TrEMBL record:
This is Lipoprotein. It comes from the Bacteria. Residues 1-28 form the signal peptide. Keywords: Signal.
Amino acid sequence: MKLKHIHIKRKQIVPLAAAFILAACTSAAPLPRLAQAWPQQDEVRWFKLVQTAEDGRILQTSLLAVQPDGSDGLRFVQTDALGAPLARQTVSRKGWANDGFVAPNRRAQQVFAAVVPLIDPQAAVYPQPHVEKQGAADIYFQNGKEMWRIVRQNDAAVMMFPDRSVWQLTPLDNGQTEP
């Protein structure tokens, strides 16, 4: 069996590369969705969000605001200490969307998804997550794959991800919201 050589003209390279890029984008994991309706509340919930290294060093401290967005969504705004946005995203039954002109931030999206069940245990961003208890940790799985672990500590919660990143979430609204 002889194989024929395929000749690609330079004019065909750009459309071919674009097709490969689009194909790679469409093969990504399905977008997370809210599994249940978010309780209708007008207040914004404020949190201190701290990312730490494995040795306990603080890598980043930020503020996180979470508020209802429309009838079935949530809006997340993460800012640095000076108020500059680090991530702004919304999630609804249609999936995730960037909010404003802040660059996409997949890490923040993962953290925001882990925050949802801390605010409301009946809500979930991923449909039908499986939760296992292991010691003090609640381990969240989707399709057999670990998404994150949560350990509650007094008024805070520590979220640990498979990539070994660790985030601590502490409510800032005088105890009205417990993680």
